[in-house]
Amino acid sequence: MLMPYIKFTGNCEEAFLRYAQIFNGEIQQISKYGDTPENPDMPMDEELKSKVMHAQLMLPGLGGISGADYTEPVAKSGNVLIQAHLSNETSAQQIFSALAADGNIIGPLATNPPPDDNSISGCVEDSFGVTWIISARTN
Predict the structure, then answer these.
(1) 85, 91, 107, 136: least buried by Cβ within 10 Å?
(2) pTM of the full structure
């Protein structure tokens, strides 16, 4: 199973809680830097202790995603998108709308052109800067 790993700059927990709600997913793990034994030679400040070291979320019928808060800047290169192919059009519309809330619609959810015109897809960048392609069969 492939599991995309998403880098965040401090809002990983917020994103994963939101994704769990949107996709009706189950958070398998959220570990914070402060959960690990502290090395006295390399003390952590309180801000770092509150950040997510690793998170994992399982999405029903889709697999899962992992992620973490990174201490260095995260470059947004745009070369990787996450596709979620849903089981039906209603689910696709609901999830697309939820991801688009406070985000940016790149391409609206619409019928695909021939020869794949019995499905829909759309592209959205969510409020966390993650770009999603949402698709589903229409029949």
Answers:
(1) 107
(2) 0.88
SS3 track for the chain: CCCCEEEECCCHHHHHHHHHHHHCCEEEEEEEHHHCCCCCCCCCCHHHHCCEEEEEEEECCCEEEEEEECCCCCCCCCCCCEEEEECCHHHHHHHHHHHHCCCEEEEEEEECCCCCCCEEEEEEECCCCCEEEEEEECC
* Phi, psi (rounded to 5 degrees) for 92: -60, -45
**What is the distance between the terminal CA atoms of the chain, rounded to a whole angstrom?**
27
Q: Which one-letter amino acid corresponds to residue 70?
A: Y
Predicted local confidence at residue 20, as pLDDT: 98
Return the number of other C-beta atoms located less than 10 Å from residue 33's C-beta: 19
**Please, what are the domains in the chain?**
1-73 (3.30.720.100), 80-139 (3.10.180.10)
| Distance from chain centroid for Cα 16 | 7
What is residue 114's predicted lDDT score, i.e. its pLDDT? 81
Helices 89-100 and 12-23: crossing angle, nearest 10°? 150
Opening angle at CA 136, ends 135 and 139, nearest 5:
150
